[in-house]
Amino acid sequence: MPEECILLAHGDGGALTHRLVQEIFLRHFDHPALRDLTDAALLHLPEGRLAMTTDTFVVKPLFFPGGDIGKLAVAGTVNDLAVSGARPLYLTAAFILEEGFPLADLEQVVASLARTAREAGVAVVAGDTKVVERGCGDGVYINTTGAGVVPAGRDLGYHRIMPGDAVIVNGTIGDHGLAILSKRAGIEFDTPVESDCAPMNGLTDMLLERFAEAVRFMRDPTRGGVATTLNEVAQSTGLNIILEEQALPVREEVQGAAELLGLDPLYLANEGKVLIVAAPEAVEEILTTLRRHPLGLNAAAIGRVEAGTGVGRGPGQGAGQRTGQGSGQGAGRGRVFLRTPLGGHRIVDMLAGDPLPRIC
């Protein structure tokens, strides 16, 4: 097997392992807590509540329009911390490598991960590498754990959401899902579709610094898209969410491709979007603030929260009518509805069966 590929010996803890760590990982992930290669990183944390999250990335293909698995690993973990109100500080990164994976591709992934971490202002402070036999992996899988701190005065959660609140998204939806699908299937569009993959902690921190009281809740709509995320909110709060179809920000090329493929952008994954539930009186100021940030240029108010009494159904529109990719399952008191341009309402159910697996 060529030396420029991963060998099983790269995972045995011997000379090749040390060479891999020194020549690729340490070269890109340089940090004082990492350099000594001890069994644990000793870190300093500012005051506040500790926030931690972990995620594993198995996206296929590894490289896609707008990003790659390295960029995605940072963005996904940083965003989970950010939408919880935390300021992300540290990451760990564990790599499961398949025998035969090109070292050049590994270095490209590692460099991208390191670059995205620097852009997000977080440090990679610990990691691990394992090698599996050819055919037992898919090039590389990455697990990341993130740690951050929630400053005093920030309180986000289901318990703060109330009827009358507005639902806001910071930009167009469905971009990541269509970018992965087009690359995987070899589909080309007249206007290229790129993933929205990006760390959002700069945007969320800016927002919470100014609107800590008005912002009730945040969540990034990744797998299952906006529809599934909002169904989780509705089920957890017992409140209804009414989406305005005309207000949903969807790129023309994404909408057209989704219609052609029988997909609904509401169910497509996003990797650089945040759903914000906020007090209605602050909506315009929040939108103005978001639109000043590069990741919020297309921010829009897309719906509202109502009491969970079944409101939102128009005449003759019962539970049998729903968007095409929902489960049709009963979901408790809280439901999500889509108000059409003609004034009717459709039930938007939880995603049942992923139309696009291995999305992140």
TrEMBL record:
<dbReference type="InterPro" id="IPR011854">
    <property type="entry name" value="HypE"/>
</dbReference>
<dbReference type="Pfam" id="PF00586">
    <property type="entry name" value="AIRS"/>
</dbReference>
<protein>
    <submittedName>
        <fullName>Hydrogenase expression/formation protein hype</fullName>
    </submittedName>
</protein>
<dbReference type="Pfam" id="PF02769">
    <property type="entry name" value="AIRS_C"/>
</dbReference>
<feature type="region of interest" description="Disordered">
    <location>
        <begin position="308"/>
        <end position="335"/>
    </location>
</feature>
<feature type="domain" description="PurM-like N-terminal">
    <location>
        <begin position="39"/>
        <end position="150"/>
    </location>
</feature>
<dbReference type="InterPro" id="IPR016188">
    <property type="entry name" value="PurM-like_N"/>
</dbReference>
<dbReference type="InterPro" id="IPR036676">
    <property type="entry name" value="PurM-like_C_sf"/>
</dbReference>
<dbReference type="InterPro" id="IPR010918">
    <property type="entry name" value="PurM-like_C_dom"/>
</dbReference>
<dbReference type="InterPro" id="IPR036921">
    <property type="entry name" value="PurM-like_N_sf"/>
</dbReference>
<feature type="domain" description="PurM-like C-terminal">
    <location>
        <begin position="163"/>
        <end position="311"/>
    </location>
</feature>
<dbReference type="GO" id="GO:0051604">
    <property type="term" value="P:protein maturation"/>
</dbReference>
<feature type="compositionally biased region" description="Gly residues">
    <location>
        <begin position="309"/>
        <end position="333"/>
    </location>
</feature>
<comment type="similarity">
    <text>Belongs to the HypE family.</text>
</comment>
